[in-house]
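Researcher: I'm preparing a figure for a lab meeting and need a structural model of a single chain. I don't have an experimental structure, so a prediction will have to do for now. The sequence is pasted below. Please return the structure as tokens so I can convert it later.
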Amino acid sequence: NVVYVPMQSEGTLLGCVALSTTIPGTLTPQHAEIALDMTDQLVVAIQHAQMREELEHSNQQLESKVEKRTAELRSTVATLQILEAELRLKEADARAASDTKSTFLASMSHELRTPLIGITGMVEILTQSDLDVEQRQVVGIIQESSECLLQIIGDIPIFVAAYSSDLWFVLVVS
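Model: Understood. Here is the structure written out token by token.
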């Protein structure tokens, strides 16, 4: 006597449970019910095992992706930190160059103003002496040119200060 009970899950045959005895007629309908209950429990256990395997596989894939992305992010962060450090160095270099330029221009403005003030002073004295008309015109041109040049040189520190502070002037002419 043998009772075969198929184990099925969603129409797929997973296996078979066989209940057998060597004594004829000893298998009862109650034994068949027990075999059916056993197959139902075995199917659930098999399904759980399959789902556990799928879950573990999915977890491994997800962990692998997370590790890969984490490594990529670490690499990106390291690259950004290097770029930031390089940028800070370049910014410091640019500021130092700007400061050097400003110092140079201020110094040159002073060095140019000093002799030019001497020239304008001497021209002023010259205008008070006895000059003919043509000489007075030449001295007038020298006086205007030197005063104009003195004004331009005097404006250099103002432009340097405006440039270094990103301050801009707009000239409105009517």
